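HOLO CASE FILE
Compound: glycyl-adenosine-5'-phosphate
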Amino acid sequence: MSEPTPELFDKIVNLSKRRGIVFPSAEIYGGFRSTYDYGPVGVLMLRNVKDAWWRSMVQLRADVVGLDAAILSPPAIWEASGHLDNFTDPLVDCRNCGTRHRQDKLDDPEQCPSCGKRGEFTEARQFNLMFKTQAGPVQDDGAVAYLRPETAQGMFTNFANVLNTSRKKPPFGIAQIGKSFRNEITPGNFVFRTREFEQMEMEFFVPPGEADEWYRYWCQERYQWYIDHGIPSEQLRLRPHDADELSHYSSGTSDVEFMFPWGWDELEGIANRGDFDLRQHAEHSGQKLEYFDQPNNNRYLPHVIEPAAGATRTMMAFLMAAYHEEEVNDEKRTVLRLHHRIAPYKVAVLPLSKKQELTDPARELFANVAQHWMTDYDETQAIGRRYRRQDEIGTPYAITFDFDSLEDKAVTIRERDTMEQVRLPIADVVGWLSEKLA
Ligand code: GAP
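Model generated. Tokens follow.
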């Protein structure tokens, strides 16, 4: 396990840049305010985080369906949800150096962390975090639109649509993955807090009497998901909110927290939201959002349990937990011990030499394996270096096609973590990998 030190943080940022995981956005123009682009390796990893979540939350469950709602949304949604009034952070300006800070995140509420001066802050102002824009060519109030600051509202506004079309009844959930936007006062810590990020949220609608039970269930499920995908239990905790942290409508919220280099911080919140959301939207839209339980002749507004996670933040935690450095034959080996479902590439095909007699059949093998898994192909540099490159991006299996392969129709597969090698007939490779990567 890697210690979550500031050095580890720097190593992850450097590795991300060097190996095409995450690049600072608009870098050729000097970068753009805590926005990031996911490179050829990072895009695969981020997709895998989202796919692993979708697999657990939608694919493997008969009681959850998916949704992909619009990012652009009318003010009515955010009036009903309370975001227009309440989605604010307290903002203070330093009169001495002009920097802006989130008051509730200051170590010392009197001292500016940028210039060190004390007693120079302005009165705190409530700053709304939503990005406001105009839809269409007219610039009047009727054209105001917002970029969603969370994916959750799409699930509430489509509750009746999903209920009427999916044949689901409470308890059931609607899940969504997608971009959200918040004009954070102090973004930072790499992709931990950004203004554009991806969320993975699920709204689970339950009969009111079952809410507490389902809340406990989802807290455990979501904690276990991170463990099952490779976060060591020493680096993860489930922290129930204190009463003074709870929203007025929530009867319980717990955060799944990861031990980041700056301390425990949130990956996901699981909240018992009561009927607040459906009630608000029913009142503001004038639509009935109740569920009619026909056998019991009972009409009710379902209560909601919401596990809300960040995909980009979770990817960062997976990178940190997986990062290891070790000595192998007097040389430093950097290896990302990622769970195979999260690893960007599952397999690499490496011909021992660039000679065409090897590269032709190696490419044929690549084409075959790539039918099943994301596969890298690399014929540059010495084989030892190529193994190291694959270790650094967490590829679980590297297949070497050598000169003997031409004779014995077999290849060597090297396992990332143990570095053990097995020789297998080429015809058996896909079957062997299928078992390992199940
Ligand atoms: N619908 C509830 C909701 O959005 P949240 O705690 O504000 O709850 C859920 O957000 C998750 O989204 C967080 O736990 C975090 O992982 C992620 N998240 C929130 N703001 C973020 C930001 N500025 N940058 C990256 N991830 C963020």
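CASE NOTES: The mean pLDDT is 96. The chain is about 30% helix and 30% strand.
CLOSED: yes
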